[in-house]
Each structure stands twice: as C-alpha cells, then as structure tokens.
Amino acid sequence: MGDVIGPVVLVLLAILVVAAIAKTIRIVPQASAVIVERLGRYSRTLDAGLNILVPFIDKPRAVVDLREQVVSFPPQPVITSDNLVVSIDTVIYYQPTDPKAATYEIANYIQGIEQLTVTTLRNVIGSLDLEQTLTSRDQINGQLRGVLDEATGRWGIRVNRVELKAIDPPHSVQDSMEKQMRAERDRRAAILNAEGLKQSQILTAEGEKQSSILRAEGQAQAAILRAQGEARAIGQVFDAIHRGDPDPKLLAYQYLQMLPQIAKGDANKLWIVPSELNDALKGFGSMFNAHGGSQVQAPGTSDQRPQQSRRPSEQHPAPDFEVPTLEDPVEALRRARAEAAGATRAAEGAQRTASGG
C-alpha cells in the first residue's frame, strides 16, 4: 500500500502545482480589461498583457471589452404630438471607459441603455408632430445623445453617437404622404413644362422678330439700292438725250417703231390708236416733204433753215442732274444688325421686368 500511495500523492501534487500555475498566470488580450476580486471583494483591474494572480485567492470577475460597440434596438412605438403612432428604430454607438463602474454600478448596461433610449425617445417625440419628426432627425439625435451620455456616465459608459435608423408612420399616413408627394411632383412638372413652353415661345418670337427685322432691313436696302440704280440709269439716259439733242422727227420715228410693241399680246382684243399718232404722222410727213422739196429746189437758192451747231451740247446744255450716291451695302447691313441687336436687348429687358414683376 505504501508503494501505491506514494506515486498517487506525487501525481496529485503535480496536478495541484499545474493548476496553481495556471491560476497564477493570466494573459489579457489587447483592448480588454479583467476585473479581479480577492476573497469576494474588488481587488484591481488587469490591463492587456501578462498578469500574476494569487491562486485560490484572486478570482477574475468579468472581462470587459473596451472597444466601441454598436447595438441596434428593435422598433419602438412612439406617439407624436398630433396623436399618430410611429415606429422608430435606434442605433447606439457606445464605449466602456471604466470597467469597474460598468461591472459594479449596473447589472446589465446594454439593457439599461435600451430602456433609457426608449423613455427619452418618447419624451422627445411626444413634443413634435409627424412632420417635425420626419424632418428633425439631427435634433432628435442630439437630444438623445445628451440624455444618454449624462445618464450612462456614472455607469462607466460613453455614448458616442445615436442614430434613428428608421421612422415608420402608419400605413394610412404613408398612403396620404405618397399621394401628396405625387401631387407635388405633378405640380412641379406642370410648372416646369409651362416655363419651358413660355421660354420656347419667347425665344421663337424673338427669333421671328429678328428675322423679320433683318428681312425688312434687307428689303429696304435692296429697294434703296435698286432705286438709286434706276435713278442713276435715268439720269444717264436723260443726260445722253440732252447731249444728243434729238429733233422732233427722230422722236416721231421712234414713236412709230414702238406702236407694234404696244399692240403685241394675246389678251389685246381691242387696240385704241392714241391721239399722239396724228402728230407723229404729221411730223413724219413733214420730214418726207422736206426731203422732196430739197430735190426740186432751184439752183442758186439756199436753205433758209438755221444752221445747227455741230456741238448740240453747247446749244442745249445738259441739265444739272445730281447723281445719287449709293450707300455701302456692308455699312447698310451693319446698321441693320445693330438695330436688330438693340431691339433684342429691349425685348430681353422687357421680359426680365415682366419676370421680376
């Protein structure tokens, strides 16, 4: 028996030594803290790294994660000031700053943060209507964070951020809001279409106005140039006639040559002989008589008609006919464009005045 008891005792002693060593050495991971109690009372907080404990006397109580953590709470029904029930989901970002207070000041700080969030949220939302609730998320987040940070400070918890993940009004209210938004969008679309049509018509009218102005200016300049050309041509013909000094016989002959041209045409059913034809014929007959009389003139007699000068221009000086001055087409086009630009600026000013009114 003695031989058997000896090895057993040695094995037990070895196991006891190994267990004591295991309880003596405690390795704490990074960003973690371990609360150690000695004989049931708080002793110290172990930081990251290798730590030595007194076996069977020091006992780890809790391991606290010092990293920032995120917790999402289920939807909570909240009543607004206009008696509408909305469901709100919240997300809390928190971080333990004091492991001892997080362990001993509250039994479950996650549950405490959740209940405090619900009560604070109901107090904040109860003073707002639905429209303010949907549009004042930053204000609600700031109030929640202030209340939670003040209350959880003594728990060793720091609330870094509070976010409203979702705000769900009742289905009937959602349908009404969708109809309102659809009507508002339709109204904006109609306004935009009307504005676009208005601008299009204004631009079209401005373009037609400028086109009409330029066309009218072009026609006016063309008419002016045509009239100036015709005036110059008439002046040159008039000057040539006076310089040539034609006698009545030549004019009568030209008149007789133009009569067949007057009678031409399919629509001429009746031709009226003008009264000037008799005068032309008389002049033409007198011309033949004059030539016949010159053939039977007796010798020695002389022609008693006055001798015409070889320079008709000296007997009948050309009238002082003013040759019209042609306007430069480039200058006329530039002036027309300047007037069109002035009219466009005046129309734009009137449009801005009407829009501002």
TrEMBL record:
Organism of derivation: Kineococcus xinjiangensis
Region (Disordered), start-end ranges: 288-357
InterPro entries: Band7/mec-2_domain (IPR050710), Band_7 (IPR001107), Band_7/SPFH_dom_sf (IPR036013), Band_7/stomatin-like_CS (IPR018080), Stomatin_HflK_fam (IPR001972)
Cellular localization per UniProt: Membrane
Entry GO MF terms: peptidase activity
Keyword terms, alphabetized: Hydrolase, Membrane, Protease, Transmembrane, Transmembrane helix
Membrane topology note: Single-pass membrane protein
Annotated family: Belongs to the band 7/mec-2 family.
GO term, biological process aspect, one: proteolysis
Designated name of the protein: Regulator of protease activity HflC (Stomatin/prohibitin superfamily)
Domain Band: 23-181
A GO CC annotation given for this chain: side of membrane
Upper classification of the organism: Bacteria, Bacillati, Actinomycetota, Actinomycetes, Kineosporiales
Residue ranges with Low complexity bias: 339-357
